[in-house]
Amino acid sequence: MTTESTQFELQAMQLFEASLDIPNTQRKEWVTAQTGTNTKLRDRVLQLLEKDAISENVMHTGKVDVDSESIDIPEKIGVYKITQLIGQGGMGAVYKGKRDSGDFEHDVAIKVIRTKVLSEQLIQRFERERQTLAQLIHPNIARLYDGGQTPQNMPYFIMEFIDGQPLTKWCEQQNLSDSKRIKLLIKACEAVRYAHQNLIIHRDLTPSNVLVDKAGDVKLIDFGIAKPTSNQSENDNVSNSLASMSFTPGFAAPERATGEGNNTLVDIYSLGKLLEAMFKERRIPKELKAIITQATASNPQLRFQTVNAFIVELENYLNQFPVTAYSTSNTYKFSKFIKRHTKASLVAGFAVVAILAAWGTSIYQYQRAENNLEQAQARFDDVRTLAKYQIFDLYDDLKRVAGNTNIRADLANRGQEYLANLSKQPNASPELKLETAQGYIRLARIFGVPAEPNLGDVNISRDNLSIAQIMLQELANSAPNLPDVNATQAELMAAQAMILVHDDSDLAAAQQTISNARKLLDAVPQSGRGELWYLARRNLIYTDLERADQAGDSQYLRENANRLSQDVLQWPPSLQQSLIAKQDQAYSFYWLAMADFIDRNNAEAIENFRKADSQLSALEAEQPNDPMLLYLLAWTNYIAYGAAANLHDQNQSVEFLDKATASTEKLKTLQEGDASITRLAMQMREAKSQLLAEMGDFEQAIAQQIEIVADQKRLAEAKPEPSQYSTWAFSHLILAYMYRDVDRLADACTSFEIAEQLLRPFVATKQLSGYMYNGATRLPSAIEKCRNGEDLPTMKWLLD
């Protein structure tokens, strides 16, 4: 901790620097109001103001008017000849310099800090910060090239010279449209996101520190340095830096005024205020106003929790997607869908109306033509074709468009009803009955088959699969030579096995189901193997890899990771060029990474996760808004975060978690009401709480984890299945170890006991995945150690 006198000087310096943006005639009144009854602090700030003739210009590396009371300009700093004074203030001055060594020309900005405003401790911190800042390399961040001390022992930065204008001034001079203003801010946000990924907070994001150069490129300048750990106030030793002195009224988060705010949320507040300032002379649209309101919430926990979440909302606004800060109602989402696809919506609307009208007409005419067999068959075929189109083709076209999850479910259900009714007609052919069974399998995947986006109702999925199974068994008896019966049965069993793996945690039954399905496929002669046969085998491979993952069988994963991509080479040419083929080739790297992750080869795992991410990202760029690609991207980066966390690599942890969160946020927009995405988002929240704990912010981590445990309880009570109870118990285990790390052993013991109680009913039935079964059987020992005050076993021992 700093000494009392140092804390006092820091408080005085914060107010002193903040007062520079207050008109000279109002400064004394402002300082008096800020210091309240603390007359000693008030007098010290006023003393600093009296001693320095301070200009109202803000120091930065862009162009500003020169202070009328300029300090003496040195001739040279380092190897740079000083050509002009850019600006100055109470902290020091900024000069423009030209390289004077004769080897090449190079203009820079040089910021010199007056030593009289710094304690010896702050000067040392300044030196450390300069080294950290030099590592920031981003196209929208002004580079720090070098640094040192003048002959008068004044520290200085040598920075990239930005010949630009403050962000707000540029917007007005160029008379930019709303969308162009937002796109400029997004560029600034991307720079801040990069800084946060490198554990650096700016903490003084103002128009003067966000410049736009003559080419229209955004450049962030004057970065403060801090690790994003909000358990420490700005009066603590770790925050005694130049960053802690940067405090601009109107843009600084309110918690800064109380000495708090040593986390990334202060930058999010300032970005929201920047956005508001960019629209100062304009009417702010209501959705944009809602984004600003959330970003600048007084309570930090009500703000966007990451810069990436802020960017997603801005991009949603620009692209006419729903803005969740404004509304989450279905009516609003539908209105955004219409605006986004005005022409397409009209066409699609007419198409759906036409389909419904065609059904009605066809059924009516079918009934009227019952005495004319030829007419009846024609109308029968019309309805059959329309129903298939509804369930398969139209559904696939709509699934990449946001805001219509329930509409798609309704369309699929309606199509299924017609197919089911037609299959019961006396003249229904075996082919039609097969199509109906395939329709039920498709509906099962839509509603609740795990490991892909779904509506989260596994019970409907089970019912649909049971109906399809009965129909296929009848077909196997009545039409044994019908093509694709075995392939359809194998596809059904792949879906059943996936439910056994993830919802029932019955890995032995899943493995037996997969084995039986493979026998059905092997029985099909080569000449009878069409596209459906190859896709069914592909889904069995995928399901078996999921089973091995849940079992913790790294050897099987390693040996079979490439089966997905190798299997593609045997597909028919038309399938080899499909999106699913490219997806499987990319996801082979994911399974290799999972094998390394299970074996704790975290560095190797990260390398393969990055390969998977790279290929999946390229595919998503080609096929934007594809739910399955986004789902795979979210999982890839989420598990990669786990590998980085195991290495205690905070930079990579933040990077992967931000990527995973970004994909999940897109999925939530596309798949509203999708329970699987809700659970995935919950895991992202849990990962963030663990990252906070890793970074030492246990207070916030524990508070967030308690909320997650409560949410997991609600999900488990709504869906009382082994997998959900297992997830709930795991959240308690995470909370227990957080309690342990802050010596709250009684609370840790309680969380262990709750986890054990949740898992106990599923131990005897072996309805737990491998690592959770290990945890359930070892928890009694951990609880005993906890109650006896002994050292607790590690999470690794508990679950491995």
Instruction: Count the DSSP helices.
Output: 31
Using the coordinates above, name the CATH class of the domain at 164-303.
Answer: Mainly Alpha
Helical/strand content category: alpha+beta
Count of distinct strands: 9
Name the assembly state.
Answer: single chain
The H-level CATH homologous superfamily of the domain at 164-303, spelled out, is Transferase(Phosphotransferase) domain 1
Summarize the structure.
The protein is of the alpha+beta class and 800 residues long. Among the domains are: 48 residues, no CATH class; 106 residues, 2-Layer Sandwich (Phosphorylase Kinase, domain 1), CATH 3.30.200; 140 residues, Transferase(Phosphotransferase) domain 1 (Transferase(Phosphotransferase), domain 1, Orthogonal Bundle); 101 residues; 105 residues, no CATH class. The chain is built from 31 helices and 9 strands.
Q: Describe it for me?
A:
It is a single chain. This protein is α+β, with helices and mostly antiparallel strands and 800 residues long. Among the domains are: 4-51, no CATH class; 57-162, Phosphorylase Kinase, domain 1; 164-303, Transferase(Phosphotransferase) domain 1 (Transferase(Phosphotransferase), domain 1, Orthogonal Bundle); 328-428; 696-800, no CATH class. The protein is built from 31 helices and nine strands. It has helices at 4-18, 27-35, 39-51, 120-133, 167-174, 178-197, 265-278, 286-295, 307-318, 330-340, 342-368, 373-398, 405-423, 430-447, 458-478, 485-502, 507-522, 531-551, 554-560, 563-568, 573-576, 579-598, 602-622, 627-646, 650-670, 675-694, 698-718, 722-741, 745-764, 770-787, 795-799; strands at 76-77, 80-89, 92-99, 107-113, 144-149, 155-160, 164-166, 210-213, 218-220. It has a six-stranded antiparallel beta sheet with strand order 1-2-3-4-6-5, covered by helices on one side. α10 (330-340) crosses α11 (342-368) and α14 (430-447) runs parallel beside α16. The radius of gyration is 32 Å and the shape is elongated.
